[in-house]
Specification:
Layout (H helix, E strand, L loop, with lengths): L6 H8 L6 E2 L5 H6 L10 E5 L8 H11 L4 E5 L16 E4 L1 H22 L14 E2 L12 H13 L10 E4 L4 H12 L9 E7 L8 E3 L4 E2 L6 E2 L2 H9 L3 E3 L2 H6 L7 H7 L8 E7 L4 H15 L4 E6 L4 E2 L15 H17 L3 H11 L6 H16 L4 E10 L10 E11 L1
Parallel strand pairs: 1-2, 2-3, 3-4, 5-9, 6-13, 7-12, 7-13, 8-11
Antiparallel strand pairs: 6-16, 8-12, 9-10, 14-16, 15-16
Helix pairs in contact: 5-6, 10-13, 11-12, 12-13
Pfam family, one: Memo
Protein name: Protein MEMO1
InterPro entries: MEMO1_fam (IPR002737)
């Protein structure tokens, strides 16, 4: 495909589109450039044009081990006698000569052209193989119960205690902590969901574990929950991918992140009466600048305008305490937990104004540790776009809670809020 250090560049462009990928690497530097985590699903082929570029066999072995590859095949085109230098090739590495190299490269080219013809090489919405990629419910059993019956009973219990006051919601804001802490609060948001009109659920969650300056889409087709599996709308994913504004997260990143997963059981429960009639659109939101929040808001505004779509904005509110490196305290409010509540509700009031600039100014002034501030910013900018064309919207918060009541500097807490947006 390429030569020397340009290999990883084309590899990154093509790896999501093929089952087999040939990468031609020439130096130690080019090996280090390859994102090893994303290689784990591919067999990796290495080709070198001259003996002095050959790396020690153990380098490839280490790469295979760290990337969890099934095999590495080292293709060499120098005289066979030189290949004796690779006699120590580990068991999971194979060294073959020039004739076989040429043959395999030719066969791989045929496979490549066949894939291009059959699949028209796309980022999303194109079936590359018969294997369905599933995201497991990785936080089940820790952040919430892995028992489907127990989970169903818990969700029913919380939802039964809440009134449906502003249904149907076009968007909701709800927390993503363990259900022991925020399950009852989240019910206030999900009670406003109308499954009879909702056919697509966008879930925007902040990235907690990986640095991300844009938004990312999942490589999965199915999200598992203890209740039932949720399918991703691959057509919408394909449309979003074509904009060039999205990255593709790895399955490992997806499964390590909790901000989206914590909304899956509640989504499944709220939609259970029409569980075969809807799909989800999970979006991992990075640390966006104000201008990028505006760009994503504008892009997603057309989906927010559609009554058959529901937007779930995943966010906790203030993370207070020394372990969060945030100890803002307004003495005029009395106890620390009351100061936190006052700060949070100030921000909630600004969000209810549906003004992204005011919300941004609030964050700059108080630096409140609202982890879903960027998904909220995207929603507010989407609303602003729709208000320009005359849509009348209203957002109201329905519940507020704290994980504990802080009274001294050694305490810590996380705040939760549930709100819903309706279109008149």
């Amino acid at each position: 495909m390429t030569n020397h250090d340009q290999g990883p560049v084309l590899f990154q462009q093509c790896m999501d589109k093929l089952d087999w990928v040939f990468v031609l690497l020439g130096t130690q530097h080019s090996v280090l450039l390859v994102n090893q985590e994303r290689l784990r699903r591919f067999t990796f082929f290495v080709f070198h044009s001259s003996f002095h570029h050959i790396l020690p066999a153990k380098t490839y072995a280490q790469l295979a081990s760290s990337a969890r590859l099934s095999a590495i095949t080292i293709l060499v085109d120098f005289p066979f006698s030189h290949s004796l230098a690779l006699a120590s090739t580990p068991p999971h590495c194979t060294c073959i000569g020039v004739a076989t190299s040429i043959f395999l490269l030719f066969v791989s080219l045929l496979f490549f052209l066949r894939r291009c013809y059959l699949n028209k090489i796309g980022g999303f919405g194109t079936k590359m193989s018969n294997r369905v990629v599933c995201r497991e419910a990785s936080h089940a059993g820790s952040w919430y119960t892995a028992s489907g019956s127990q989970l169903n009973a818990q969700l029913e219990g919380w939802l039964s205690q809440v009134q449906s006051t502003i249904k149907p919601a076009r968007a909701i804001i709800a927390p993503h902590a363990g259900y022991t802490y925020c399950g009852s609060c989240a019910a206030y948001a999900y009670k406003q969901v109308d499954p009879t009109v909702t056919r697509r659920v966008f879930i925007l969650g902040p990235s907690h574990h990986v640095p991300l300056s844009r938004c990312a889409l999942s490589p999965a087709e199915i999200y598992r929950t203890p209740l039932y599996d949720l399918k991703i709308d691959q057509k919408v994913y394909a449309d979003l991918w074509k904009t060039g504004m999205f990255e593709r997260m790895s399955l490992q990143t997806d499964e390590e992140e909790h901000s989206i997963e914590m909304h899956l059981p509640y989504t499944a429960k709220a939609m259970e009466s029409h569980k075969d009639e809807f799909a989800i659109v999970p979006v991992l939101v990075g640390a966006l600048s104000e201008s990028k929040e505006q760009e994503y808001g504008k892009l997603l505004s057309k989906y927010l305008a559609d009554p058959s779509n529901l937007f779930v904005i995943s966010s906790d509110f203030c993370h207070w305490g020394q372990r969060f490196r945030y100890t803002y305290y307004d003495e005029s409010q009395g106890e620390v937990y009351r100061s936190i509540e006052h700060l949070d509700k100030m921000g909630m009031g600004i969000i209810e104004q549906l003004d992204p600039i005011s919300f941004s100014n609030y964050l700059k002034k108080y630096h409140n540790t609202i982890c879903g501030r960027h998904p909220i910013g995207v929603l507010l900018n989407a609303v602003s776009e729709l208000k320009k064309v005359g849509l009348d919207m209203n957002l109201s918060f329905l519940n507020y809670a704290q994980s504990s009541q802080c009274r001294n500097w050694q305490d810590s807490s996380v705040s939760y809020a549930a709100g819903a947006l309706i279109v008149h």
